[in-house]
Specification:
The structure is a single chain. The strands form two sheets. The chain has a five-stranded parallel beta sheet, sandwiched between helices. The chain has a two-stranded antiparallel sheet with strand order 1-7. Helix 3 packs parallel to helix 4. The longest helix has 13 residues. The protein contains six helices and seven strands, in the order H-E-E-H-E-H-E-H-E-H-E-H-E. By secondary structure, it is an alpha/beta fold. The chain has one domain: Rossmann fold (3-Layer(aba) Sandwich).
Length: about 150
């Protein structure tokens, strides 16, 4: 497939295969492809990804288990990522303090600093770049980032 498109595939190679601490990350996105890509990146770095296809599903997941970090898509049907963040922060339990990172392709309507002002712990633009994603997740969780190398397949 890569030869037909003229694109080369890249594989993620992690120099330090074990992170300082494996993180539990809730990824909320209405696009199953985005969920799969981010899950592959996180697991390559030794972290556990839990997927939610909507804000309602994310709130339900957070009421049942604790997460180190939440990756939140901003534009979703029914409930935006901003609305989900507000509901998380309004909760009485410990999940209200979970770091939530804004994840969006819409970089024209808001600057990254505006997401921080809204209460997000970080910002990652789409399409997701491996280094940016891992840096944001580990920074938000307060753990050291493992070294990484990208190598071309084939």
């Amino acid at each position: 497939m890569a030869a037909a498109t003229g694109r080369r595939e890249c594989r993620v190679s992690v120099s330090n295969s074990k992170p300082e601490r494996a993180l539990s990350v809730l990824h909320v996105d209405d696009d199953p492809v985005n969920l799969r890509v981010v899950e592959e990146i996180l697991t390559a770095f030794g972290h556990r990804a839990v997927k939610a296809l909507s804000g309602v599903e994310a709130l339900d997941q957070m009421s049942r288990q604790a997460f180190d970090v939440v990756l939140m898509d901003i534009h979703m049907p029914e409930m935006s990522g901003i609305e989900v963040l507000k509901r998380i922060r309004e909760r009485a339990g410990p999940e209200r303090d979970t770091p939530v990172i804004a994840l969006t392709a819409d970089i024209l309507s808001r600057e990254p600093a505006e997401y921080l002002a809204l209460g997000f712990s970080g910002f990652v633009p789409k399409p997701v770049m491996v280094q940016g994603l891992i840096a944001a997740v580990t920074r938000a969780a307060g753990v050291a980032q493992p070294a990484l190398r990208l190598r071309r397949a084939g």
